[in-house]
Write a structure and sequence with these properties.
Elements: E1 2-8, H1 14-27, E2 35-41, E3 44-50, E4 63-64, E5 70-78, H2 81-90, H3 100-111, E6 121-129, E7 134-139, E8 148-151, E9 157-160, H4 163-168, H5 178-187, E10 201-202, E11 207-212, E12 215-220, H6 240-258, E13 265-268, H7 273-286, E14 291-296, H8 305-315, E15 318-323, H9 326-339, H10 348-359, E16 364-366, H11 371-375, H12 379-395, H13 399-409, H14 414-425, H15 429-435, H16 442-448, H17 463-470, H18 475-501, E17 506-508, H19 514-521, H20 525-528, H21 536-542, H22 562-565, H23 571-577, H24 580-584, H25 591-603, H26 610-623
Parallel strand pairs: 13-14, 13-16, 14-15, 16-17
Antiparallel strand pairs: 1-3, 1-9, 2-3, 4-5, 5-6, 6-7, 7-11, 8-9, 8-10, 11-12
Helix pairs in contact: 2-3, 6-7, 6-19, 6-21, 7-8, 10-18, 12-18, 13-14, 15-17, 15-18
């Protein structure tokens, strides 16, 4: 796990590029405290910060092929690197280390872009071809690891693992993109490929980009779509028993791959199914007593601390529980905000869990993220099915009647406003599924932003790509793919990377694994998802390992007590953030409307609206940060 950076320029000398890359490296020291490297080859200067996981004594980056043609910097982990090493050795490659970076370098030298579908793991990689004078950039097919790029006016290119690092380069300005502000309020994040800044883009999950002669060309690489759609080469189960046995084998395989490291490995553990199933499998396969970490709260109605401790006792884990209070978050809020390279309404729990895990002596931690997307654990799965059934009747309703209903709902509560937006814009199965994650309704968004910032509705960027792949797919497949490509990629995975790497912790997500997801994509929906028993497929596959009380425990989402804290210890931060001077600083908000929105929250007892108020506060506070504008 690392932070990578680079500067490619046809006009600027090596010393200027090196200085810029060194500044980017310095801004990412938390991503890689174990090693640092900068190297120039022709027009390219590559840099990295290393968090050593495999073969800590070796694996320095940038790393070059023996013939000097290829030079690579890499952030992530390739879990099948030993198998690839055997294959590449047979093709004539030789290896000096036991790390995955050297195998990845050889794979790119051998197959170039065609190496990407062969990789099992999480990665953001940059490879300079000194012979062709071109740069290859790529992200893993799920978007677990980030990669941001900025094309300079002279045709050069900056790239880095964090936006804050790009800004630290001194070669670009941090100019806010109003379209991105609107997108954030709509989706709880800025969906790739856009970022919060103008002229900076994020590669999307499964993207491969090539820079050559001052031009950057971006496309999805072969094999990316197989993760969200059925493909040839997989045999579907013919019975539930066969499916359950097959799923157990797949789960054991993914956990076995993800626990391999040359440093201590632990896990996040809550009171819920996903992390408990993961820890149970890790304990079964790993042998040694496992360190686990959880976050609890003094507010009993929100805390899963007791359930997590009970799960840990059943599994024999060495459990470490941290109590997070509103007072502690209030004290830390400036530090947490400084961690962000884009605004987000989520991620605080991962920040503190990662801090606890690193302090507890592990360098790698596994998370249960991704199980809800694979096994239908979110309300969006049922909602999408219900809406799909009655959308045809809505569409044949006379236009004036539809418009009257929508106009009335636009003046209703949050639920009705969101429903109105869905009915207006759900013109495809993927659009319908993605719209389940809209945060602010259009009418609310227009009231909070200035006319210049309240831009017209735009569909989620993944809509067209998912429609092209899943136009005839079952509703469950569409919803699962939408959750993975939307909320999981742009919110959960991005926040997990930023918050864990702030504490120099490598966070791995075994449920988000190519072999497991491909296998599931080719299984009958009836085995994978039972509406009356969400995630029963996962339960059945690991039932023998789970605490008995977990099987009867009611599912509840992991939520911090924001609704309580925002009226208590976090209120001074929010009052300051929503002051006229603060809201007006960016020129993007209607200050009176924002303040009225905050006051309505204080006066009410809504236990849901807090999430929108909090995400709005984070946006305002983020936009008020000061970055130097560089010519």
């Amino acid at each position: 796990m690392c932070g990578i950076a680079g500067y490619i320029s046809l006009t600027h000398p090596s010393d200027l590029r090196v200085a810029a890359v060194e500044r980017m490296n310095a801004a990412m020291v938390h991503r890689g405290p174990d090693d640092v490297g900068v190297e120039s080859r022709g027009e390219a200067t590559l840099g990295m910060r290393r968090l050593a996981i495999f073969d800590p004594a070796h694996g320095h980056q940038p790393m070059s092929t023996p013939d000097g043609r290829w030079h690579v910097v890499f952030n992530g982990a390739i879990y099948n690197f030993r198998a690839l090493r055997i294959e590449l050795t047979a093709l004539g490659h030789t290896f000096k280390t036991e790390c995955d970076t050297e195998v990845l370098l050889a794979a790119i030298a051998q197959w170039e872009c065609d190496a990407l579908p062969r990789l099992r793991g999480m990665f953001a990689v940059a490879a300079w071809d000194a012979q062709a004078r071109s740069l290859l950039l790529a992200r893993d097919a799920f978007g677990i690891k980030p990669l941001y790029v900025h094309t300079t006016p002279d045709g050069g290119l900056l790239f880095a693992s964090e936006l804050n690092a790009l800004i630290a380069s001194g070669r670009m300005s941090a100019e806010i993109d109003p379209r991105a502000v609107s997108d954030y309020l709509a989706w709880l994040s800025v969906p790739a490929p856009r970022t919060i800044y103008r002229n900076v883009q994020s590669l999307r999950a499964g993207d491969c980009a090539v820079w050559r002669d001052g031009r950057l060309t971006v496309s999805a690489y072969n094999g990316a779509n197989e993760l969200v759609a059925p493909t040839a080469g997989f045999t579907p189960a013919h019975s539930r028993e066969e499916f359950t046995a097959g799923l157990r084998a797949q789960l054991e395989d993914t956990v076995r791959a993800h626990i391999v490291a040359d440093v201590p490995v632990g896990a996040f553990l809550s009171g819920g199914l996903d992390s408990t199933a993961l820890v149970a499998l890790m304990t079964r396969l790993g042998g040694a007593r496992l360190k686990t970490f959880s976050i609890g709260f003094d507010e009993a109605g929100y805390s899963e601390a007791e359930a997590a401790a009970s799960n840990a006792r059943h599994l024999g884990a060495d459990h470490h529980a941290t109590v997070l209070t509103g007072e502690r978050l209030a004290d830390d809020i400036d530090t947490v905000l400084a961690t962000l390279d884009q605004p987000t309404g989520d991620g605080i729990n991962t920040y503190y869990a990662s801090q606890a895990a690193r302090a507890g002596g592990v360098t790698v931690a596994l998370s249960g993220l991704g199980a809800d997307e694979l096994f239908g654990g979110y309300p969006s799965f049922g909602n999408t099915v219900r809406l799909t059934r009655w959308l045809p009747a809505w569409r044949v309703m006379p236009g004036p009647i539809r418009n009257a209903i929508l106009s009335r709902w636009d003046r209703g509560d949050t639920r009705l406003r969101k429903l109105a937006d869905t009915l207006r814009h759900a013109d495809s199965p993927a659009a319908l599924a993605l719209l389940q994650r809209r945060v602010f309704a259009e009418s609310t968004l227009r009231s909070l932003l200035t006319p210049e910032a309240a831009l017209a509705y735009a569909p989620h960027p993944e809509t067209a790509r998912l429609d092209a792949v899943l136009h005839d797919a079952d509703v469950f497949f569409v919803t699962s793919a939408a959750e993975m490509r939307g909320y999981m990629a742009d919110v959960l995975l991005r926040d997990s990377d930023v918050m864990s790497m702030r504490h120099s912790l490598e966070l791995r997500v075994p449920f988000v694994d190519r072999p497991l997801v491909c296998w599931l994509a080719n299984q009958p929906v009836a085995f994978r998802y039972t509406p009356s028993r969400p995630k029963s497929a996962l339960i059945d596959a690991v039932r023998d390992l789970l605490p008995p009380e977990l099987l009867t425990r009611k599912k509840r989402g992991f939520t911090l007590p924001y609704a309580v804290w925002m009226r208590g210890p976090l209120r001074p931060f929010l009052e300051d953030t929503f002051s006229s001077a603060s809201v007006g600083r960016s020129g993007l908000f209607d200050a009176a409307a924002v303040q009225a929105y905050w006051q309505r929250f204080l006066a009410g007892n809504d236990t849901i609206e807090w999430s929108r108020v909090w995400s709005l506060a984070i946006l305002v506070a983020f936009l008020n940060r000061r970055h130097p504008a560089i010519a």
